[in-house]
Write a structure and sequence with these properties.
- By secondary structure, the protein is α/β, with parallel strands linked by helices.
- Helices cover about 40% and strands about 15% of the residues.
- The protein contains 9 helices and 10 strands.
- The strands form 2 sheets. Strands 1-2-3-4-5-6-7-10 form an 8-stranded parallel barrel, surrounded by 5 helices. It has a two-stranded antiparallel ribbon with strand order 8-9.
- Helix 2 runs parallel beside helix 3 and helix 8 packs across helix 9.
- The longest helix has 19 residues.
- The two termini are about 30 Å apart.
């Protein structure tokens, strides 16, 4: 397990900054000209967004792969130097596409993810986040997922990077599936614990059942228009505090018209909850 330099460090994902960055780089497994989704108007470049984030005190970053414009070797080196210059640590590259459980094109998807692991290494990232799979869980899809993760974890290891997955998409759609997968892989990968991917009446019970795996956290605060759901946000933070989580929190969501204010509010809530002492 990679331990962050500062306990309770709060960083930011470029997804939270997407209302400012807007860019979506083409390239999907097997279809190099395809977009994962449509871009939005760009207010600032990725480098400028990183600079402004650092000015707001965010010295840890999670970077969505599709935000990297023209990811050539020269471009990756340029971006790495910019991160070093601004004093921002690249905690994780978020590989937001690829299906390692694909029934017919599994090898293509695994190769595409491996390419991004190599790029993460060139950027100096500590970790990558890889989607567990889009296939519904059954014996065959579980086997494909676990075999792919074993391969990818070794590809990452030789590049100085750790693989994490997330409680996201159908294959890891509930605590039983996620816990079984983590148990089968015996520590080969870690978990990014995301507040917002599971819902319903059993949300907190389900999240509590996987919290002990967390090596990173996507601290996702939900909003009703401009109004944050503070009760839900606090409840999710406490789930991690209760299991002794000492890792970083990455802020991943902010309303488009008040990005920096929303992030400052969320960071303050995390700091308040973690500063509380037991009665």
């Amino acid at each position: 397990m990679i331990t962050p330099r500062n306990p309770h460090l709060t960083g930011v994902s470029t997804w939270a900054l997407h209302p400012l960055i807007g860019h979506v780089e083409p390239g999907r497994p097997g279809t190099p000209d395809a977009l994962i989704f449509q871009p939005s108007p760009r207010i600032m470049s990725l480098e400028d967004a990183i600079t402004v984030a650092a000015e707001h005190g965010y010295t840890m970053l999670e970077l969505c792969h599709f935000h990297i414009y023209n990811p050539t070797d020269d471009r990756l080196e340029q971006l790495r130097q910019h991160l070093e210059k601004t004093g921002v640590r690249l905690w994780s590259l978020l590989i937001d596409d690829g299906d390692i459980t694909h029934e017919t094109d599994n090898a293509t998807h695994v190769a595409w993810v491996t390419m991004w692991i190599d790029r993460a290494s060139r950027l100096g990232a500590d970790t990558v986040r890889v989607i567990g799979g889009h296939a519904a869980p059954d014996t065959a899809s579980r086997a494909r997922c676990r075999a792919a993760f074993k391969t990818l974890s070794m590809e990452a290891f030789v590049r100085g990077v750790r693989v994490r997955t997330e409680n996201w998409f159908p294959l890891l759609c509930n605590p039983t599936e996620l816990n079984d997968c983590m148990r089968a892989l015996q520590g080969a990968i870690g978990l990014t614990f995301d507040f917002g991917n599971w819902g319903g009446d059993d949300k907190y019970a389900n999240l509590a059942a996987i919290a002990h795996h967390a090596e990173g956290c996507h601290a996702k605060c939900s909003y009703d228009g401009p109004n944050p759901d503070e009760a839900d946000f606090e409840a999710c933070i406490r789930l991690l505090k209760d299991v002794g989580y000492q890792g970083p929190f990455t802020l991943v969501h902010a309303p488009g018209e008040s990005v920096w204010d929303a992030l400052a509010y969320q960071r303050a809530v995390i700091e308040r909850v973690y500063s509380e002492t037991a009665d």
